[in-house]
Amino acid sequence: MRDKLVETKAEIIDNVNTFLDGIYSNSDDKEDFRKMVKRGVDFYPIQNGYNFDFAPSRFIGYANNDLENHRLLKKDIKNNNTSVGGRKTTTADGRKTTTAINKVLDPKAIHNEFLKSELVAFGNRIGTKIDNRKHKFWTSPTVRRSIKSLKSLDSAVDDINDSEVGNNSPEYIRRMAGSYVRDPEVRRQVLSRANGVCEYEGCVPFMNINGQLYLEAHHIISLAEQGEDKISNVIALCPNHHREAHFGEKWESLQDEFKKILERLNQ
């Protein structure tokens, strides 16, 4: 029975994995999965490195679902239209699946601003723009721990705080003057690229309290100098080399070395 709803968490997780396999496949069917993300309302989030991936209720709420089964459910739009609350619906109805998933997962799907911003970033990564809706998310204890961990990452040191002292060079002060908003998504992509290793000399940093190797993001051309807030302008450094890049006697020559490294990484 293709419109049977999920009844266990294991069924939901199996569907999440099926959906994400489709999103990251090289198949022509990938566009079908992207459209489901674009138009989705309620989502199951799952951490993927320094980011979150998402699977929509309408797909993961049907037992043993796959793309072929989902296409058959969509065809029922023509053959099995019914009315819910004065609005036509079908067997492939996200409200049905959300209700079913809410019976399995605790807590029920809720609005979360952090996850909403992560959903938009996920859409950007897979090449689609998320529809402007009020989205809700299932926030298990694991998801809440992941959110706390990533928020901690977002509030960590990016480029060195302007208030820190240690380099009185007029040239340094000129370059670093001002305060600029940085995109946390850029930092995460850079840290994901580094995979826990300092991109300058390959040293492995300490483990932070969240169980992640601690690296910091450094703009080789500062935002004050109209440097771009893009991964092509940001290098992941261990804390020691990051301080040296700002306060060491070789800070200017290090920028040239960083540029060469990023040119190689971005080829």
UniProtKB/TrEMBL annotation:
GO molecular function, one term: nucleic acid binding
Pfam families (alphabetical): HNH (PF01844)
Entry-linked InterPro entries: HNH, HNH_nuc
Signal peptide: none
Gene3D superfamilies: 1.10.30.50
Domain HNH nuclease: 185-243
UniProt-recorded name of the protein: HNH nuclease domain-containing protein
